[in-house]
Amino acid sequence: MTDTAEQGGEQSAQERLRERRAAAFLGAERVLARAGFRGTLRERLAWLQEAAPEVYDLDEPGDMYGNRIVEALEDRVAALLGTEAAAFFPTGTMAQQIALRCWAGRTGNPTVALHALAHPEVHERSALSEVAGLRPVRLTGEPRLPTAEEVRDFEEPFGTLMLELPLRDAGFVLPSWEELTEVVEAARERDAVVHFDGARLWESTVHFERPLDEIAGLADSVYVSFYKSLDGFGGAALAGPRTLVEEAKTWRHRYGGMIFQQFPTVLSALVGLERELPRLPQYVSHARVVAAALREGFAEAGVPWARVFPEEPHTHEFQVWLPYDPDVLAEAAVRQAEQTRTLLFGVPWDRGGPGLGITEVTVRADGLAWTADDVKAAVVDFVARVREVAGEAVETVEAIETVGK
């Protein structure tokens, strides 16, 4: 078999697994999180039709190029975050590029200091440099936010410090409030402005024990997402001083973000602020119950090594690390859902190293029904299937080696 054929076969296997995972999710009776985007189009439209009258007068005219209902959402976000103004954007990538290039123009320095695992560095195909003409520099690659010392002692000037709160790819981690305050102060000492990548800032209030406006008030500007935690259709907002926001709107037009009508997405964002935002603290609290039960469950199941990170989640999302090949873990997770209608791990498993699989766990409304005993029972069942799949993989390898001889 050629390399190309092997790659095609592997791709097909991965595609089949994705299809099975999607079908298993739809058929599962028990999940820890049932995000709306996984539903059918009919379900999403029905949800919006049912919820929209709660948040906006549907007899009002629709929006055109960012007015009316879009402005209502912008005002709501500015009030929640305690900023002078906010601007709606179709994507967070666009919002942050524009925010950072606006700050670069004001500071005269295109260098942006950020974490090596920050979203622009990992998920945006070098957009800051390729599109916005900025120069990102990495303060650290450690699985935590940069420290005040790292900011203060960085070897070259930078105009903007960007902090992702929470830092998703490090395990949805947050610093302590004292650490965050010190980092911001260190940036100010260097005459740098501070921008928060707050895609998931909404759920940080529990960890910081501070309201949203106090958290956002530390930064010069803040970006927030409407779908990552609030279950909207998409969209983002940039909040900050009115002069910055007005300049950002000009760039929004230049970037192609002045969409003719956006009311479905904006309505879903307003629904998220009304329904999901107040529930996020409850999700965070229960995520800590789930995390503890997962640790206990893996120990009871005799897994030689397992890690939940952070040990006490900072938000309602966290990582799980297990000493098995991610392909084995993925197959076991799908089988559990197919055979028991319980989906414990619904997110793909990534390779963290040889024989190490890493996944993310999110706890939302559906997860609140799970007791600690429910979680532990599901873990024991999952581990049994992991061992089953691993055993099958060994038998397959042995059979191939026997044929080869």
TrEMBL record:
Domain of life, source organism: Bacteria
Pfam annotation, one family: Beta_elim_lyase
The UniProt record lists the keyword Lyase: yes
A single MF term (Gene Ontology): lyase activity
Cofactor requirement: pyridoxal 5'-phosphate
Cited InterPro entries: ArAA_b-elim_lyase/Thr_aldolase, PyrdxlP-dep_Trfase, PyrdxlP-dep_Trfase_major, PyrdxlP-dep_Trfase_small
Keywords attached to this entry: Lyase, Pyridoxal phosphate
Gene3D superfamilies associated with the record: Aspartate Aminotransferase, domain 1, Type I PLP-dependent aspartate aminotransferase-like (Major domain)
Domain Aromatic amino acid beta-eliminating lyase/threonine aldolase: 66-295
Family that this chain belongs to: Belongs to the threonine aldolase family.
Protein name stated in the entry: Beta-eliminating lyase-related protein
Origin species: Streptomyces plumbiresistens
